Amino acid sequence: MTESWGQFKTFDGAKFETLDPEFTKKITKILGGQLLTSCFQCSKCSAGCPVSDKVNIQIHEVMRMLLFGLEEVLQTDMIWLCTTCYTCQERCPQTIEITDILFGLKNMAYKKGIAPLGYIAAAQSLYDTGRLYPPTEWEREDLGLDDVPELNVEDTKKMFKKTGLLKLQEGK
Fold it and tell me: Is the distance from CB of 91 to CB of 48 less than 8 angstroms?
């Protein structure tokens, strides 16, 4: 891969020296992780992945990193670029719930402050305005829609406060 998405860098030439079996155990306890250790690296998951040419680590390599207990897996862009099409999961001969594992990895990464800036900005925008992005008047005008309605964001803010969504990152 010659280019990487967002803030994530290539792993070409990287040497991983810390193997953490406790991290692997932690992964086996998240949704979908129960069958992780049955992965025998057939690569069928990567062969069917629609974003395989856009990521710094293929999905079968993510699975291998998990088996080895490499927490650096949280720095891969695969967990953020996964389209949740479930093709990897459907193709897996061991019925590993790969997509569900990726959801868990995304949550773990976010809690550690590892996330593309766009995700953090989108959450903040949703909190502040009740929208992921502010629609422009000309967009609505082009579509023949009425003016942008005013939103009461207090309910959204209550939801964020109750769920702790903006405080998910450790240390915040």
Answer: yes
